[in-house]
Amino acid sequence: MRSLRRNAALAAVVAAATTATLLAPGVSGAKSVAADPNILDVCEDRRPGPADPGSYGMQLDGSFRHPALTPVDEQNEHDFPGRNKKYDTRSYIKNMKVEAAYEGADFTPDYFHTWQNIVDFDGRRYLFQYSRSDGRVYDITDIKKVKVVERMSRKDVGGDETRANGDWAAHDYWGASTIQWNKRLNAYVMVQSFESRRQISELSDHPPGDKYNNPEGVKKLRAKPGLKGFKVFRLDGPRKKDWKLLTTVSTDSTQADPLNTDPAKAQQGSGSIDVPYWTGEKYMFIAAAPDDTYSGTEYPTNLHSPGYQSWDMSDPARPKLLDTWHLPGQRTGEDAAYRENPRCGNRTSWMGARMPLFLPRPVEKGGRYAFAAMGGYGLTVLDVSDPSNMRTVSHLDLPASVAGTEGDNIDVSQYEKTGMIYYSGYPLTEDCYEPYKDVYQIDARDPKQPRVVGVLPRPTPPRSAGITDYCQRRGSFGPKRTGYYTNPGQHTAGVLSYGFYNAGVQFFDVSDPAEPEISAYFVPKAYGPSTADYAYGNQTHGVYVEWDRNIAWTLTNHGIYALSSPKVLGKPDRDAPARPFRNSEF
């Protein structure tokens, strides 16, 4: 308990210092030159300057002191005394076993991030791994003999999504998906998000190329064609040839008919962001900015601040919009509310939803509350018991943590048993050149008054690593996500698994929320033979657990690992699943 209190107290002190810095005058104080009315210019430019090298780094006790405030700087390394000279090619493991490892291009469709889903057909289990135009389908029935059964790419046309090739039609790609069994169709139905691309050439992170100083770049970005919304497919098998398109839906509120739009033309808003929340029944929730007035975000290359939408999926071929919700300050003209946020003018913070709502229990099964992680806007609790009238229950501002993503993921798997949710952002820079991204333990037993009651322990390297803090290992360090609600089987009580970048995959025992501890980990090597050198720092960025077989798939910049842990996950089932995955379990 003493260590938990010390960690929480330290986090509070750092947060207070960071917030104070955020409120201080910025480095330029200049007004932007943006001509677009939906580029907010509410506060003067207060973007952070580079951190003083003397203000952060290794401490005498072997810990690392993070900088209090940093600018967007994802492209550069940030050396400091005590950092390893080379990337670490060793691996470290505790209370886990590597059942199998698969390396190479077939198992790294993208070095930086991928989404995953599982489907079962004819007694076989398949894992999807994909990032937009680059996708793979694996037969993982035998975890020790994984086979690639489908490859999709656009590399032959330079990744240009406006051009068709043998795998993709023009403007098409594999969007972040949920796949659930639909009783009406007696089949799997896949809902794919189509969103604004985040890696773009029209704008850059810094003046004069950012959205505040580059009106031509903003104009070009607004004019780019493509669907902003989602697509719905029936799946009759695991391969792309087995997908049957049921409908294409635009979330652009300016469109006359959302089910009949032209993706070859520009559409407004963000589109559907990340994996839609849908359990195969009536209601679906997505993160979306419906038009360009949803503009309240400081991030220099992002034009939209997504809120949330609810949809009626009674007929998956004809979804119906029920409601749209956002926080005051997210839209153009809501200047007074936006100005109240201490991040206003920092030209750095991502503000708005990055993932859909997190529901501990589906509405169809009596669920009432949903939790929203909104970056620099913090945590909001919504009452979604009537999806046609989503209502704010409470709001909680989290300590500022600039740069990096301040709020992205909420794990709600423990909420029904303990009332605890776990809120986190993730790092965007390497070498710990930003505040540490704590995983906040939030007591939400009273949804009207959620409160931070602690943070999860910070992973530390084993003695054999020869370092005392993972910041020294090079690359990014911090939590990513705990997988998705789409994982097959029922989540094990008291267990959280986070991809932790250069700290591999970390398993936390939260069965006693007052004394959380790290119960197991696997830290793979930093890169493999086929990893591009510019991706060495982006190491373990995902974990996807088969709770029904007690197998954890770890996704890295060089391949995939199948992990087991009888102590933490339970005895692994290496045979074909006893019953097929159909719908997410809660």
TrEMBL record:
<feature type="signal peptide">
    <location>
        <begin position="1"/>
        <end position="30"/>
    </location>
</feature>
<keyword id="KW-0732">Signal</keyword>
<feature type="region of interest" description="Disordered">
    <location>
        <begin position="253"/>
        <end position="272"/>
    </location>
</feature>
<dbReference type="InterPro" id="IPR013211">
    <property type="entry name" value="LVIVD"/>
</dbReference>
<dbReference type="Pfam" id="PF08309">
    <property type="entry name" value="LVIVD"/>
</dbReference>
<feature type="compositionally biased region" description="Basic and acidic residues">
    <location>
        <begin position="200"/>
        <end position="209"/>
    </location>
</feature>
<feature type="region of interest" description="Disordered">
    <location>
        <begin position="200"/>
        <end position="219"/>
    </location>
</feature>
<protein>
    <recommendedName>
        <fullName>LVIVD repeat-containing protein</fullName>
    </recommendedName>
</protein>
